[in-house]
Specification:
single chain; 594 residues; alpha+beta; five-stranded antiparallel beta sheet; 20 helices; 24% strand; elongated
């Protein structure tokens, strides 16, 4: 090798690196094993059931964080009058709610939210802190959808909305006492809303939705259970007559400075309640600050001594004995009668008068003599057959049944007082039902607050002939010389009876507190309606039933008969205008009669 040089420019021979085959195989095997292990683990998580924390567990956990079941609120049934006019409807509203754990942490959002809701910020923070362990609290309920949307548009974390329904009463205070109202959850609280709550309320449905982390719905997975809409209720009330009665009663209570008042109108042919109003009333759409006393449906819940309106019903019992007829003479001299330790007075000495004039003049002496001439149970049983002392069957919450005593022994003064409406109590609806039996020629129809598509049958509670005789007697009360001339209707002959009752005070019957009552029917020849008017404690100097209650009857009855398309008839003595029928619902004045 001595003297040998290496040529720098000469390339060295390339050397090839080789990997032993066993190493390559081992690497491939390891990768395959890792892939198999990975696939097996994925299978355990996603496919194989029954493994601890397997796919069922993970799927459940995922669903628990994203899948929610939403309530689909049900629509409450509608309450309408007999003609389909809505009296109570449910309208969609939006209620805002929050998750306190999400919302409370962001002070800026809480401040902005309080301002948007017109809430005190400190109060809102306090509320969120109090319910911080909860996931749901209401922020504000029953907002108009557009107002709620303007708040939800801010997409504040933890603030959400849900659709609910709010009850609305189109007739307001006019039908408030009959219809009643619901609470914020649409559960009936008063009136027919309460009585028919199970019928009106719907059944909520449900649906499954997928939500993101912020609680927003990103997918609707469909309905799980369809909501069931509540059933509708069609009342017997005619809203037109209800408005008429409400207006006249409200005006009369104000003009007489009275404490309260009630009016009931019945259809004698069907027993349906066409109108039922009370004063004071309230607006069911704005109940804040309402006095509890204003909520009562006095026509059904309040019982009172009916006074002289019972005299015709006592005469009905007398006629049924066969010992009396409309022209039986009664000696009322000298204008008063001593019964026990009490002296019962007439306004003046009417002398010897017939039974009809006893009713015409509302003679206390005359009716007392008739009552004392009969067994006490005769009058009491007649009152009971007419529906007094028992429920009317309308199913109204809190209905009073009144008081109809049933004694083993009656003292003479009890017997006399009972005959002219003292020592017993009734409701305005009961009194209307009793007069309806007379108006229907002795047939007693069941009273109903629901529309009757088919006139119900009735029972013959009293003889037809004697009922007709009492109607003829009641006509004279509205004629010259009677106590209720102001109840006469110019174009419809009417019949009825006044009642002026001393109210009970701390020391017995008060001399300066009265109840004015009128019960009447029209047209007298074939009565279609019965109207009872009760005015409590008029305080303007007028208090007789003929002065206070009778004029209300005249206005309401005339308007109602026109709405019912009953052809008018000229009342004898009021021949001012004759009417010519032009169509089923229109009558045109033809001019004065000579």
């Amino acid at each position: 090798m001595k003297g040998t040089k290496l040529n720098a420019n000469k390339r060295q021979p390339e050397q090839t690196m080789t990997i032993p085959r066993w190493r390559f195989s081992l690497a491939v095997l390891l990768l395959a094993v890792l892939m198999a292990v990975l696939l097996w683990h994925v299978a355990l998580l996603q496919v194989v059931p029954g493994e601890d924390k397997g796919f069922e567990f993970l799927q459940g956990q995922g669903d628990a964080r994203t899948v929610r079941t939403e309530v689909i609120p049900a629509h409450r049934g509608v309450i309408t009058d007999r003609n389909g006019e809505p009296l109570a409807v449910s309208t969609p509203v939006t209620s805002l709610w929050a998750n306190p754990s999400e919302l409370a942490a962001d002070a800026v959002v809480v401040a902005a939210l309080a301002k948007a809701l017109s809430m005190d910020e400190k109060a809102l923070r306090k509320k969120l802190k109090r319910y911080q362990g909860k996931e749901f609290i209401y922020l504000k309920r029953h907002l108009p959808p557009q107002e709620a949307e303007s708040i939800l548009a801010n997409r504040w974390p933890g603030v959400y909305g849900r659709t609910e329904y709010q009850r609305f009463y189109p007739a307001g205070e006019v039908a408030a006492h009959v219809v009643g109202f619901t609470n914020i959850d649409e559960n009936g609280q008063e009136g027919l809303e309460l009585a028919f709550n199970a019928w009106l309320e719907g059944r909520s449905g449900s649906k499954r939705v997928l939500k993101d982390l912020k609680g927003r719905i990103i997918k609707d997975d469909g309905e799980l259970k369809a909501p069931e809409t509540g059933k509708d209720v069609h009342l017997s009330i005619d809203l037109r007559m209800q408005y008429l009665a409400h207006r006249e009663l409200k005006q009369a209570v104000a003009e007489n400075n009275a404490a309260s008042g009630s009016l009931v109108m019945l259809d004698t042919h069907t027993g349906e309640v066409l109108a039922m109003v009370n004063q004071p009333s309230y607006n069911p759409n704005a109940r804040k600050g309402i006095r509890t006393s204003a909520l009562r449906n006095r026509a059904i819940t309040d019982q009172f001594e009916p006074g002289s309106t019972m005299k015709p019903l006592t005469v009905l019992a007398a006629l049924e004995t066969g010992r009396y007829h409309p022209h039986t003479m009664i000696d009322t001299n000298p204008g008063y009668i001593r019964v026990g330790k009490k002296t019962l007075l007439d306004h003046k000495n009417y002398g010897v008068i017939d039974l009809t004039k006893v009713i015409t003049k509302s003679s206390q002496v005359g009716i007392s003599k008739v009552a004392l001439d009969m067994e006490p149970d005769v009058v009491r049983n007649m009152f009971s057959r007419l529906g007094l002392g028992q429920g009317t069957g309308v199913g109204f919450p809190g209905e009073s049944v009144g008081l109809l005593p049933n004694r083993s022994r009656w003292t003479p003064i009890e017997q006399a007082n009972f005959a002219f409406g003292y020592g017993m109590t009734v409701t305005a609806l009961q009194l209307a039902q009793a007069y309806s039996v007379v108006a229907n020629l002795g047939v007693k129809k069941p009273v109903s607050l629901l529309r009757q598509d088919v006139a119900p049958g009735g029972e013959q509670a009293v003889g037809e002939a004697i009922s007709g005789q009492v109607i003829d007697m009641l006509k004279t009360v509205l004629q010259p010389g009677g106590t209720a001339r102001r109840a006469q209707i110019e174009t419809y002959p009417a019949a009825g009876k006044t009642g002026t009752v001393h109210k009970v005070g701390k020391d017995g019957y008060a001399d300066d507190r009265y109840r004015s009552v009128f019960a009447g029917m029209a047209p007298a020849e074939d009565p279609r309606i019965v109207v009872v008017v009760v005015i409590e404690e008029p305080n303007t100097g007028k208090y007789y039933g003929g002065e206070v209650a009778a004029p209300i009857f005249a206005k309401v009855a005339e308007g109602a008969l026109r709405l019912m398309h009953v052809p008018p008839k000229v009342v004898p003595g009021n021949e001012k205008v004759a009417f010519e029928k032009k169509s089923p619902d229109k009558f045109v004045a033809r001019g004065p009669l000579s």
